[in-house]
Each structure stands twice: as C-alpha cells, then as structure tokens.
Amino acid sequence: MKIVILGLSITSSWGNGHATTFRALTRALHARGHHVVFFERDLEWYASNRDLPEPAFCRVVLFDDWSAILPRLRTDLAECDVAILGSYFTDGISAATEVLNSCAPIKAFYDIDTPITVAALRDGGAEYLSLSQVPGFDLYLSFTGGPILTELETRFGARMAVPLYCSFDPNHYFRRKPYIRYQCDLSYMGTYAPDRQAKLDELLCRPAAHLPEHKFILAGSQYPSRMLWPKNVRRIIHLSPRWHAPLYSSSRAVLNLTREKMVAAGYSPSVRLFEAAACGAPILSDSWPGLANFFAPGSEIILVTHACEVIQQLYDRDPNELDRIGAAAQARVLAEHTAERRAKQFEDYIQRASADAAAPSSKLLSAQRLETTLAR
Length: 376
Hints:
Elements: E1 2-6, H1 18-31, E2 35-41, H2 44-47, E3 59-63, H3 66-79, E4 82-86, H4 92-101, E5 106-111, H5 114-122, E6 125-126, E7 129-130, E8 139-142, H6 147-154, E9 161-163, E10 184-189, H7 194-210, E11 216-219, E12 233-236, H8 244-250, E13 251-256, H9 260-265, H10 271-278, E14 283-285, E15 302-303, H11 307-315, H12 319-336, H13 339-358, H14 362-375
Parallel strand pairs: 1-2, 1-4, 2-3, 4-5, 5-8, 8-9, 10-11, 10-13, 11-12, 13-14, 14-15
Antiparallel strand pairs: 6-7
Helix pairs in contact: 1-13, 7-11, 10-12
C-alpha cells in the first residue's frame, strides 16, 4: 500500500512521544513492503532538535506554508491507498478536510492523545479535530483502549474506533551492557507536565533525598529552570532516542508516571513503558485502570504510590528478583507489543475498514452517524 501520514513529527523526538511512535510503526510498515509518505510542519523547536532528519523507511515532506504544500499533498492523497491524520497536527482541521474530501480509499485518524482529544470533543471540539469530522473517518485508531472507544463510537459517531497502541522496535530496544555514564539506581524519562509533577516529587525526588548515596537520573525537557533537585539527581535536558536503550539498560529500575487524563481514561500505556520493558529494565509504575491488561502487577511490573515503597524496592529488594521481573516484562512485550505486531494489526484494521466501506449500507450508516453527532 501507499500510505500518506500527516503527523506532528517523525524527524524530532524533542518534547513529544509522537516521533518514536511513528518511527516504530512506519519502519515496520516499510519492512512489510508498504510505501509511506510523512507530512510534517517544519516547526522551529523541532528543526533545532532534529534527531532523525531523513528516515530511511519513509519519504518525509517538511513544509512551513500549508497553502503552498496543498498541491503536493493532494497529489499524494489521490495516489494513496490509506490516508492518516495524526492528533496534534498543526493544521489539523484543514488537514482533516483535505483527507475527508480526497479519494483515498481508506481515511483514518490516529489519536496518540485520545483522552485529551475526547475531553476536548466533550467541550465542542479539539483544535486539531472538529466534532463534525469524526464520523467521516473510516477508522479511528487510538493509543488508548478500553471504554473510551465505545464513547467515540456512540457519542461522537466514529465508524470504527479500535486500539492501536504504541510499540517498539526490538532491533533498537534490547538489553545492552551497562553504560557507565548512565548507571543509576532509578531513572525517569518524561517531558515536564504540571499534572504529573506531584508524583515525580513523591516517587523520585523524595527517595533521592532519603538515599543520598544512590544515583538518580531525570531525562526530559521543558522543566521550569527555577526547580531545585536533590544533588544526587542528574538532569538530562533531552536524550536522543539512540540513548534510550543504554539508559534503560544501565538503570537498576525505571520509573513510569502517567498524566491525569490518561489515568482517568485508563488503558493508555506509554511508548516509554514498552521501550523500558524491552530492555529488561524492572519498572516501578503508578497504577491506572487496565494496566493489568499489559503487565501482571508484582511479577512483570511493580506498582508504587509512596516514596517509602520506592525506597524499599531500591534498598531492600533482592537484585535477582528485580532482574526476574524485568525479564518477565521483556518477554511480555516481545510477544505482544513489537512494531511488527502493530503493523500487522494495522493491516487487519485496514482490511476490516475496506470491507465495511464496500458494504452497501455503509454510506447510509455514516450519514446517520454524522446527523446524530451534529444533533448532539
């Protein structure tokens, strides 16, 4: 298939989780014989932090003027088999109009921010997707599973809302020899988020303050410069994806924290969660609905709520037991969450959507859903 994707970024992972998600999926689709064209607005903060400017597995079209790029986009849409618009695409509303008005056989929306999008739709629409556009897509691919998929179909008229969780490439994420520069007792990787900061203070900063002889690493951008960190917390402003696996492999344990809207929706595993598990790192995580669908608490992941529980894991836990938990998580993600497996799921969804589109009643059903959505 020829697949056209309009996404936030694939060339820069700075301050976003979209790039690594798109890279893993696109690389796997390319390996399976598909041709991918990726449209990305050339934003300054990505341009100055571009860690994969020319991916070998897709053709990237960078643009800084939406009107100027339209002729090229329309040509690719006219020739493609699948058109995909990603969440938080800068020109989202206009891009959705182009995709929905095109003759692309299958039109999909890939939501890598589903709880945030749905919260916006409840209030009348997101800045990158309007209420009236949701029923127009043949597929609503969501990085969040669970009950929110039903809401997308019944309340907002999505034709087929299905989970397409993030994934990892096992050729890039695997257990490495510890890298002395990144050796630590606990690491956390994540962009600053106000609704996640209290958990970071409790589960990383407080343990660090109580264990001054232990080493901690916090990697992530956009943290306010006024923030003070314990002396044994090393700050890394931005860590290129090529160093993610060395960090995970050099950490005695890895901390995973989830934003409030993702916790409320549940069923929202982050790409960092799968990547760390792929490297065999024992993971300490906050809890959210649906987590047990991805990892078995206690045997594949360790759930923590308070600093004392983190301290106990780092100070008292048998290192061999931590290693066993990390190995069990690694086996789980290798079986269920590789990029190749996700690419196959994507192909299955396209096949289902194609069959639905060919059904005589599909156009009538779509019109009815659109009318119902607008009435709401």
